[in-house]
Amino acid sequence: MKAIVTVVGKDRTGIVAGVSSKIAELGLNIDDISQTILNEYFTMMAVVSSDEKQDFTSLRSQLEAFGQELNVKINIQSAAIFDAMHNL
């Protein structure tokens, strides 16, 4: 399973550490990651994977809830869907 995780919010210390820890806690591996600050806003995109089948509804719910704790918006979507959307 491969997925794309995006994170957007007002920049502050600890966002990368928090999100990467949560990703590991969920049993996902970070295959690639990019992050930048645009003005005062933090943006991150990560390609994550797992050898095991994952429940996207549960992953999405847990990441969204964690994002609220960090005051950022976290989204996850299947890489297959992401690829299909961009091949239309």
TrEMBL record:
It comes from the Bacteria. Residues 4-77 form the ACT domain. Gene3D superfamilies: 3.30.70.260. PROSITE patterns: ACT. InterPro entries: ACT-like_dom_sf, ACT_dom, UPF0237/GcvR_regulator, UPF0237_ACT. SUPFAM superfamilies: ACT-like (SSF55021). It holds the Pfam family ACT_6. Belongs to the UPF0237 family. PANTHER family: UPF0237 PROTEIN MJ1558. Homodimer. This is UPF0237 protein NCTC13765_01704. It comes from Streptococcus massiliensis. The lineage of its organism: Bacteria, Bacillati, Bacillota, Bacilli, Lactobacillales.
